[in-house]
Every structure is written in C-alpha cells, then in structure tokens.
Amino acid sequence: MTALELDNVRKSYDSVVAVDDLCVTIPEGQIFGLLGPNGAGKTTTIRMMVGIIMPDTGTVRIFGEPFERRHLCEVGYLPEERGLYRKARVQDLLLYLGQLNGLTRAGALRSAQEWAERLELAQWLGRRVEELSKGMQQKVQFIAAMIHQPRFIIMDEPFAGLDPVNTANLMDILLELKRSGRTILFSTHRMDQVEKLCETICLIDRGKSVLQGRLSDLKARFGRRDVRIAYEGEGRFLADNRLVAARTERGNCVELRLAPDADAQELLRLAAANGKVTRFELIEPSLEEIFIEVVGARDGR
Question: pTM of the predicted model, to two decimals?
Fold first, then answer.
C-alpha cells in the first residue's frame, strides 16, 4: 500500500508555476527523501500534502484515499520554520496540540512526557518556549509532530539547530519509527543525511520531478566513474593521462575521475606497470555529486 500519492499535481502563483504536473508515490513503511535546490517547489509540494494549500489541478491521495481534513489525525508535520507559541509553556503547548489531534488530555500528557524523557527535555516542560535554545525548540517541534503517533510523518529539515549528539539521537529515532512501520517524508539540503536514512528519493527542480527511484538503483545508473588508488612509486604516469578527467593527490593516494570512455581496468594495468598498487577502488557517486550533475545540467552548467 502507498502512504501518499501525488497524481499530476500542479500549483501556480499568478504566472509562476511552483509545482508542474508532479507525480510522486511514497511507499508505506519507508523513509522517502524529497530533494531539490532552493526554489524547486519542495515547500509548496509539502503544503499541498497536508492541505495547507490546495493544488490547482491533480489529486493528493493518502493511504489510498483522496485527501480530506480528517486524514490529518494520521499525519505528523515538522515544518522548516518553527510554528511554536513563544509565550506558552512547553507542556501546555504540547497538551493543546495533542488534543487538537484527537488525544484526550491524559493521553496527550502521557505522550508528551514519554517523548520529553526520550529527548532529554523533561526538565524543560514547565518553561516557556522563548526560554529554550534553538535546539531545544526543535525538539519541542518534533514532539508536537509526533505526540499523536501519526502513521505518515513529514520532516522538513528536522536536524536544524541540533548538535551532533542530538542529531544522531534523532536519526536513531527516525530509523526506529521506520522499523515500526511508519512512513517518513524527509526533506533536507544535507545529502549525507539522505544517504544515511532514505531508501527512495525524488529530486525536483523548477516544480518537476527530474530524478526518482530507489537510491541504490540511481547510484548504479550513474555508474562508478571515480577511482581511489594507493601505490608505491612515482605518480608521473597520471599526468596528462587520457584516461583521467580530474585528480586529487593525497600523497601516494590519489582520487581520480575517469574520462567518459575510459576503462578502469586499463588504468589499473597502467598503475601496476609503474609501481606497486596497494589499493584500487571504484567509488560509487555520492548523492551530492548526482544532485549537482542533474541540476547543473538543467541549468546549463
């Protein structure tokens, strides 16, 4: 079953097309990455998923049904911009939001306290939001999204303001939620975080899907064009070599970008003929490299 589908969804603001006939399918029980450069239409897309704005054309389906307001009780949303009442006490705010999402006061209190303990925020429940650091406010925002135990969770830059320890803790929590069967939409500019968390991604640019699928399949599609060689001997054979498009020297270890029609095995034979090779490794492209290549090609770079 799919958790969410966008079927030819389109949204315009006057003459500007923010989302252009976008089709996205998010399988249930996965962490799905929604990526794109600034101004690509990610925020507009997310807002249509949760009914903040409505598409001009196309259909949004959640758990197989056309989206209606009643579905929001199954959705948790952590927006990129914090939406907390700064003068409110943290516990009062969480109780209010939990009850808005259908919990009893007792149920909301229990869930808020459990999450606060998990995120080391329990001692701050009686404080006002404005008294908290940015990182602690981000934890409150996360609890607000999770307090009603939603099936579909939208995380837009969830690690903003968090230190490395809290980032690692939140990553572990997201993976636990995924293992429990929850579906998570993860949107960020940090490609390294996407590679750690996401199974499937959609890259949008200028409102259109330009790359979509399982991350492992996409990496295989873009091939392995980078090579890392560690060797003993002189490296002069690499200078002006037709097999090499670019190189980065690190002592007797070098990272190479192969020329478009180069054969890695030919490079290995050449390296072995000019010294002792202690390491020869084909490196799969990073998601950041794929992102730059796809978006850059569309921009003519």
Answer: 0.81
